[in-house]
Amino acid sequence: MPITRLTKPDSKFRLDDVSTDPPDDAAKQEAAERLKKLGDELLELQELMWGARTHSILIVLQGRDAAGKDGAIKNVVGALNPRGVTVSSFGVPTKEEREHDFLWRIHRQAPRAGEFAIFNRSHYEDVLVVRVHDLAPKSLWGERYDHINDFEELLAEHGTIVIKFFLHISKKEQEKRLLEREESPSTAWKLNVNDWKERDHWDEYTEAYDEVFRRCSSKHAPWCIVPADAKWYRNFLVAETVAETMREYRDDWLKTLERNGKAGREELDEYRRSKGGRHKG
Ligand code: AMP
Ligand code: MG
């Protein structure tokens, strides 16, 4: 499936040029079947990465309110072994967080080797909500694009595979979802007047996101723009993109596992020899 994947800076990129709908040739039934298989594959790849411990994965999820960040996380995490996964949500910074640089709270949630970290919102809020609402002077947030690029490069140099998703919904779909929330007690707890207030700044967020995609896209930390008006397509595409990214490391991880297994076996043989003959039981 084609996905808008930004692997280098592009000063002309415009979010409004990307559709929020699945492509015409995407079929719901087929995607559901693929998704099931992808779940098995993700679990297998996760086991290899866990054993090899040469890499980790950081999945960053950004999107407007009701874009489906939680749903997408549930879908990916549901396929994985929870042993190797942490999910971190970044909301309004606490006092302690505000008394540090903007990457402080982020860096400590970065994944350790072999593991997944999934970010529900991220360091990007510091050039999104902060920019739209003037929460810091431009002289401060304006420097952050470069800091973010350096930070992600640092993670990549240390074996972290960074994948960033923007869940792209239309203004109309957002309205529909926010109104739907009001109708059922099981979703009404999500009601937040702030979501409607943020909606009034739709175009300013679009501009802020455009700048992010233009400046903070790289080969080692690409932005993937996911058409997210249809939940089934969103879930499928996120899972597919993560699997596709991990697949490239499969052979390397297998080789590492083989090498480590061989070293372990040699050590064991050596131990048995030192005990004189094969040690049974
Ligand atoms: P939610 O994800 O809906 O629970 O809301 C979290 C809220 O925290 C959102 O409105 C974000 O814009 C806000 N938020 C996240 N990071 C920051 C930040 N660095 N500065 C200010 N607000 C933030
Ligand atoms: Mg919200």
Q: What helical percentage do the residues reach?
A: 40-55%
Instruction: Describe the sheet with the most strands.
Output: 6 strands, mixed
As a percent range, the share of strand residues is 5-15%
Instruction: Provide the list of bound ligands, each named once.
Output: adenosine monophosphate, magnesium ion
- Nearest-integer average pLDDT: 96
Q: How many beta strands in the DSSP annotation?
A: 6
Gyration radius, in Å: 22 Å
* Coarse structural class: alpha/beta
Secondary-structure element series:
EHEHEHHEHHHEHHHHEHH
Uncertain ranges: none
**Through-space gap between termini:** 53 Å
- Continuous helix count: 13
Helix/strand layout:
Layout: E1 4-6, H1 28-52, E2 56-63, H2 69-79, E3 85-89, H3 95-98, H4 104-107, E4 116-120, H5 129-132, H6 138-141, H7 144-157, E5 160-168, H8 171-183, H9 185-188, H10 193-199, H11 202-215, E6 223-227, H12 231-247, H13 250-274
Parallel strand pairs: 2-4, 2-5, 3-4, 5-6
Antiparallel strand pairs: 1-6
The chain binds adenosine monophosphate (AMP) and magnesium ion.
Magnesium ion is lined by residues 65, 192, 195.
